[in-house]
Amino acid sequence: MKKLLLIVPSLHQGGLEKVCAATARLMQPYFDVRIAVFDSRNVAYDIKGIPVADLRLPSRPDKLGKVINVWKRGWKLRRIKKKEKIDIAYSFGPTANLANIASGGKAEKWLGIRSYMDMGNPKQIRLFCACADRVVCCSDTICREVRQKYRCDKAVSLNNPFDLQEVKGLSEQEEAQLPWDEGRILISMGREDAVKGFWHLMKGFSLVHKRLPDTKLMIIGKGDFAPYKELAHNLGIDSEVYFTGLKKNPYPYLKKGALYVLTSYYEGFPNAMVEAMSMGLPVIATDCMTGPREILEDKYGILIPNMSKEEDFDPAHIMEEDKNLAQEITSLLENEEKMSHYRKMALQRAGEYTAESYIEKICSWAKVDC
Question: Would you state the pLDDT for residue 315?
Answer without folding.
Answer: 97
